[in-house]
Amino acid sequence: MGETIEKRLSELGITLPAAAAPAANYVPFARSGNLLLTAGQLPLKDGKLVATGLLGRDVDVATGKEAAKYCAVNILAQAKAALGDLEKIRRIVKITVFVASTPDFVEQHLVANGASDLLAAVLGDKGKHARSAVGSASLPLNAPVEIEAILEVE
Questions:
Q1: Which residue range or ranges hold the Endoribonuclease L-PSP/chorismate mutase-like domain (predicted)?
Q2: What pLDDT, in 10s, does the model give residues 67-101?
Q3: Which of 9, 82, 112, 125 has the fewest Cβ atoms surrounding its Cβ within 10 A?
Q4: Number of C-alpha atoms within 13 angstroms, CB side, residue 65?
Q5: Which residues make Cβ contacts (< 8 Å) with residue 112, sequence separation at least 6?
Q6: Which CATH superfamily is domain 5-14+35-153 in?
């Protein structure tokens, strides 16, 4: 992939938003050596949640995947705010995907694919990562998905 990350985002019709400010007493990202860790990112588009509620009750898997995609977009927005240039990303090391779901919902991994697919499409091999997908009783603001990431950076 010789093209830039910004060009791939553009080809996918994605414009990175301004990085979201923290909603409480924490920082949106922290850097330690060559690692960049993001705070959990919600599925915000134009400052609003793309969906609300629980998977398995209020939200279907396709909508959950779309929400996870927007969490990944917001992870990239935080990376750009931290680094100034997305080309400084060496790779996504790991993402942790929290899926607000009913107790009997067991497709968290399918929801998480929304983020994994986007990161691979945008970053190529640098976007392939380890991952955990975890069910949760609820998430902030009634979001269906929240994702945090660990990136290796220059």
A1: 6-143
A2: 999 999 999 999 999 999 999 999 999 999 999 99
A3: 125
A4: 11
A5: 68, 95, 97, 99, 131, 133, 147
A6: RutC-like (3.30.1330.40)
